[in-house]
Amino acid sequence: MDDGRRIAYDSPVVTTQFQVEIAANRRLTGGYFVLELASERANPVADATPGQFVMLRGDWGRDLLNGRAFSVLEPIDRHRFSVLLKVFGRGTALMQDMPVGAPMTVTGPLGQGFPAPTEGRTQLLVAGGVGLPPLHFLARTLAATKAPTPEMFYGGRTADDLVLTDDLERWGIPTVLATEDGSRGVHGRVTAPLLARIELAQARAEPVELLACGPTPMLRALREIGLAHEIPTYLCLEEMMACGFGVCLGCAVPVYGDKPYKYCCTDGPVFEAAQVRW
């Protein structure tokens, strides 16, 4: 496998591309699976922060030329990291069937992750479906430090969409689960128990902040909740990306300020909710 190479473009972005092999391909429920990727040499994903992502591409020749963007699930060590995926289209279907030892190309880590915890505020982490990885990563990071324990609100359509919950239990992360069909946890959308928790916090004068990743409709709702309750809210957006480092300009996000748009891959994927012009 290659050592990795630095790629510089006309933009100020400089990123790293390197080769890996699939060390494990673990299937979960609901079409979800975890890929563990390993490189011969130490790779920069070891220094990724929660919310950053990588672009992955298999050895597929001219089929599916562009990589696919996935949040980092866990930097395991200097050589290995993992991502959580769900089969949505042709690219993820190909990845689900890739055997151990298959080569892949990685570009990353990319983007801007979540901010450090604000002293004195309880972090309420809100994950929807495949939006779990950056918050799972964040929960693990905080559980390993002396930082205040966050609380997780994790929702999906069915019980099969709620994966890796054993990790949260093992780390001692208080977790509220919700499913739209009532097959696990609270019956309904995850925003309902979250609103109850926010109201409790405001009755107690307890400062909280929201950090979320999931489907855009969920993030739109959380933006409104955060603004209405005057709570600091950070959204990890899910946008289609072709390059991952600001060249293709395909992941524009409407924002307030001097510029009408920013780009999910370089300015995000984490944005302050008040900044996003939805």
From TrEMBL:
Residues involved in FAD binding: 68-71, 91-92
Protein name: Dihydroorotate dehydrogenase electron transfer subunit
Binding positions for [2Fe-2S] cluster per the UniProt entry: 243, 248, 251, 265
Keyword Iron-sulfur appears in the UniProt entry: yes
Molecular-function GO term, any one: oxidoreductase activity
UniProt-listed SUPFAM superfamilies: Ferredoxin reductase-like, C-terminal NADP-linked domain, Riboflavin synthase domain-like
GO biological process, one term: pyrimidine nucleotide biosynthetic process
Keyword annotations from UniProtKB, A to Z: 2Fe-2S, Electron transport, FAD, Flavoprotein, Iron, Iron-sulfur, Metal-binding, Transport
